[in-house]
Design brief:
The chain is an alpha+beta fold. The chain has a single domain, classed as Glutamine Phosphoribosylpyrophosphate, subunit 1, domain 1, CATH 3.60.20.30. Helices cover 37% and strands 23% of the residues. The strands form 2 sheets. The chain has an 8-stranded mixed beta sheet with strand order 4-3-2-6-5-1-11-12. Strands 7-8-9-10 form a 4-stranded antiparallel beta sheet. Helix 4 links the parallel strand 3 and strand 4. Helix 2 packs antiparallel against helix 3, helix 3 runs antiparallel to helix 4 and helix 9 crosses helix 10. It is globular, with a radius of gyration of 21 Å. 53% of the residues are buried.
Length: 331
């Protein structure tokens, strides 16, 4: 065999071996959150800690299963958020906090990173799963954002389940409202919270979804960042998908979700660097507390928060399920 051919064969063999041994790039992944705040291990009973971890694991596994069988990122994030909306542990849907009038006002949004289409609803009182209504707004109307009575009329037209306001009543949330009205101090869990999810599917498409009951004792009609595209939710296949949680007024002022995407697009920052810059620097300097979950088109995940804890979970193709609550569990 001529020497040059022999060299080519050796190089080809080495390359083939290298590719065979190289780790496969993950095709899909998901990350979720259930709220952030002053969440201290010393203040949570072991059985409560275990329950939160169980619920987060079940939710992220439900979304992961959809992605694993070839489902879309939109379906995955919606499924996760609906599951958390149905769980009274979290401040969304069934577990929503009460406003100053003793009512629930629910907000949610969803965004498709492939098309940049989005749907959002705010101030609804009877929608069992606001995230389902947000997706209907995105896919079945020419609008992005519907509020209050109009949003509920649209829900009725589209056959989306409406429930009596009594469905949302929980004793724990009612006690928190009474404490707030009596000017007693509340824990972060009692004050506010949010649920959300971001995902990358096997088609390379990103999606984000967020849902919340807002803040305990909030002024009637108050809207936070969760239903605002670019503040609490954003997704763009060219950069990332974001779902945020925390003190919504600051997330609106800092346009948190879109700012992360802008830093990636225009300054070419990595997902990790962009999310840290926004959450740990920009947001913190304003006095804003909270965090976010994020994923980019390469299945990288970031979950920064500037509080003592954030309920969170994630899973990447081929990896183990990660569930955490406290700051010391950062990775």
């Amino acid at each position: 065999m001529p020497k040059v051919h022999f060299v080519i064969v050796i190089i080809a063999s080495l390359l083939a071996t290298s590719f065979a041994n190289a780790p496969m790039k993950p095709r899909f992944a998901i990350a979720i959150h259930g709220g952030a705040g002053t969440i201290l291990k010393s203040q949570i009973a072991p059985e409560q800690d275990a329950l939160y971890r169980q619920k987060l694991a079940e939710a992220v596994e439900a979304g992961y299963a959809i992605l694993e069988r070839g489902g879309t990122s939109l379906d995955a994030v919606q499924a996760v958020v609906e599951r958390l909306e149905d769980d009274s542990l979290f401040n969304a849907g069934k577990g929503a906090v009460f406003n100053s009038d003793g009512k629930v006002e629910l907000d949610a949004s969803i965004m498709d990173g492939q098309t940049l289409k989005a749907g959002a609803v705010a101030g609804v009182h009877h929608v069992k799963n606001p995230i389902r209504l947000a997706r209907a707004v995105m896919e079945q109307s020419e609008h992005v954002f519907l509020i209050g009575e109009g949003a509920e009329r649209f829900a009725k037209e589209r056959g989306i389940e409406l429930v009596d306001e009594s469905y949302f009543f929980t004793e724990a949330r009612w006690r928190s409202l009474q404490k707030a009205k009596a000017k007693e101090s509340l824990t972060e869990k009692e004050k506010h919270g949010t649920v959300g999810a971001v995902a990358l599917d096997q088609f390379g498409n990103l999606a984000a979804a967020t849902s919340t009951g807002g803040m305990t004792n909030k002024k009637f009609g108050r809207i936070g960042d969760s239903p605002i595209i670019g503040a609490g939710t954003y997704a763009d296949n060219e950069t990332c998908a974001i779902s945020a949680t925390g003190h919504g007024e600051y997330f609106i002022r800092a346009v948190v979700a879109h700012d992360v995407a802008a830093l990636m697009r225009y300054k070419r920052l990595s997902l990790k660097d962009a999310t840290n810059e926004v959450v740990m620097n920009k947001l913190a300097k304003l006095g804003g507390t909270g965090g976010l979950v994020a994923i980019d088109r390469n299945a990288n995940i970031a979950m920064p928060f500037n509080t003592e804890g954030m309920y969170r979970a994630s899973k990447v193709e081929g990896g183990k399920t990660f569930v955490a609550i406290y700051k010391e569990e950062q990775r």
